[in-house]
Known about the structure:
- 36% of the residues lie in helices and 33% in strands.
- It has four helices and four strands, in the order E-H-H-E-E-H-H-E.
- It has helices spanning 14-17, 21-33, 58-67, 69-72; strands spanning 3-10, 37-42, 48-54, 76-83.
- The two termini are 16 Å apart.
Amino acid sequence: MPEYLVLSILVVDREKSAPYREAHLAYLTQLKKEGRLQMAGRFSDGTGGMYILTVNSLEEAEQMAKNDPYHANHLRRFTITGWERRL
């Protein structure tokens, strides 16, 4: 099944995104339980994070990213690219 890297970049002050952190983590936890999230993490400089999804299509990955509370509430912008695991 194809994998997609979601790059999620903060577009507001970090303090404004703090109230949505639990919802964001709950959303990613649910995707992990469903087997659709492979890995996720934040950037050490606090500018955002990334995650890798295993889904059927780019469109499905885009919909999942749009449903992330950070993106749905316009706190971060995202870009998605196909990911080909090598190791």
